[in-house]
Design goal:
heterodimer; A: globular; B: mainly alpha; 2 domains; two-stranded antiparallel sheet; two-stranded antiparallel ribbon
Amino acid sequence: MKNHQPIFELDSFSFSFDKHDEPSLNNVSFSLYAEEVTLLLGASGSGKSTLTLCLNGLYPEAIDGFTSGDLLYKGRSISSYPKGVINQEIGIVFQDPESQFCMVRVEDELAFVLENLSIPRSQMKQRIEHVLDIVGLSQYKKHNIHQLSGGQKQKVALASILLMDPQYLILDEPTANLDPISSIEFIETIMRIQKERRFGLLVIEHEIDDWETYAHRLIALNKKGEILLDSTPKEGFINHLQELRSNRIRVPKRYVNREIARPPSSEKENKEVIVNLKNIQFNYKNKQILNELSFLIKKGRFCAIVGENGAGKSTLLQLIAKLNKPVSGSIDFLNIPLSDWHENELYKKIGYVFQNPEHQFINQTVYDEVCFGMKLSGYSRVETERMAHQLLTDFDLLSDKWKNPFSLSGGQKRRLSVATMLHSTPDLLLFDEPTFGQDAYTISQFMRIVMQLNEKGTTIVFVTHDMDLVDSYCNHVLVMQEGNIVYNGTPKELWRRTELLERARLRIPYRLRSMNEEMTV
Amino acid sequence: MIHSLNPTMKAITIIMPAILLSFSFDIITPAIMFIYILILTFFFSKLNIKKWLFYFIPMSFFALGLAWMTMLYTDGRYATGPIIFSFLSFDIRMGSIIVSISLALRSLCFIGLSLLFAFTTDPTKFMLSLMQQARLSPKLTYGILAGYRFVPTFRHELDMLKKAHRIRGFGHAKGWRNLVEQMKQYFIPLLAGAIRKAERVAIAMESKGFTGSKERTYYTVMKIKFTDYLFLSIMLIILIIAYYVSYRLGTLNIFGHRITP
């Protein structure tokens, strides 16, 4: 495959945002070829996204960055191409489905691309219909983009890139925000099109299990933005496993020795009920979101709420925390109706970690952030200082204590947002997709902390898409579908309900998938 | 139907009478215009009357308040004629009443015109029309359109922020100073989020081949049709008729100058 001319050639290429900064990409040399599917791996902050924008010709121009070394596209320096040419030949699909469109309707967004290329109007309609047919969204032509699901939005993004008929396609974590089934559907769609059109493909993703089988090649970057590895996926994952893992890169689960899942500790069954919901109904803008829900969660449980996007999971979590009021029905927390709780008292006992940890930051420094709740609860200064020190040590944030919360890394922000909830030992901690968009190391570190809290007696409830997490940590799982609870029980039992899993768009965890495979072999 | 008119032409048609009306200080001229605007609103546009009233009623209270104040503090030039009634220490003369009713009617005309435009115009089409008819640069046009998409996201974000702060015991602000302090707390994360999103959209647009160049084809071609000129002409004719009727009745008053036949 490497006998013809490469699409991209990088020769000791470096990139930095500022002359005095450490470079984000450091002395990188490799070539990318047409028709080849390449996986680009690296922990957060290793310069993957920077590299894609350099390949697309948007950097360094867009932000006045500094480069050295060569970056050639089809044998010519990328900076020598006129504006807009490279963009049309190299397509990118980005991570965030919310912020890559500028028009309201699907049709108009696709037309926007064709207009940029000055395609005559007479051809537009036919091209738009054709590309929507390819990605399987024909019936959504006239729909508003913001009403589509995450998976559909990513397909619209893909369609608009395909309209440019690119030579090379870059996918920058395209499935990170999608539920598991939408994610597989997206991968299958793009690989089908790749087979037909034979463009080169560069895939960046944290969760690579489903991509790996399609890939011809693997390139990994280390923390400093240097090339760590350039090989075939199989070779890389088998022979360099430790190297990859020590660089905080998540490897496909089939290459990792099966870690023994914590046996769900249902033995130390607690009889006490912490949350009890009865006939909960919730509407938003005259639309029914939750429909006659009833369930209870027992003290000390590690409980997951799962289901596809838009099933009402986050809404439910907010109802439990009294952040929303149900239209009808009752919620008891510790056997007292939520409406009878005074907010100050309630939020000493309930903690809530939002999907975006930045939302919870109020103060200028990490230290003040941790102390904030303690001050409100009226602890003495000495005690506050002692507790804050302990928390910062536990959460590995001590060296960053005088930093601004907004300047922390993604994983640190997440840890801080949990730490701010622990000024008094909460009885119940609620998490909204806590592991979303994070690398392997950050997730395992985070889950360790949550486990410790659970062992100390805090009930954990979290919304997630990650079934492997559910499988290895939870002893209670609620499955939601279109505003209803369709399953309420243990994970173990859930994995046997194949028909239900399919209906709720869930995937059984890897552990069981591989067991099934072994059985069929 | 007003929905199908060209947005740029519609904007001109709405702005022109709004400017020209501001010269008349009598009652008859704005009253005739206001009736015409109501006819347009109720019979020539398919808008939801309930929704329209939802915006119109609070805004008209503002207009009435303004008129009331004008009546109490009328400029000496207009406060002529017999004293009609006294309110506290104010003597209200005939002239003051006329001027304030005129002001109220003019305000209602502005409100009616603005709502008519807002309720019958698709924002996307308005921007596209500004680009195609008024030569607004594509950079600005698509920039504004991309920003428009974020309005609902922004609202959602603010809602989440409020909830997140409530959980942390930073809930209900009491008093003005705390409220201002709290808005500051929301402002920084909102701004940070907005900047990040703007950057992402800009990069996504560029990677879709957008360069800001004016040489582009159009999928939705916005045209100015005969009906657009017709709408503008009728609007101006009604305005002229309104002025003329007032002139004939001897009530016409332009900037305080009585003009009688």
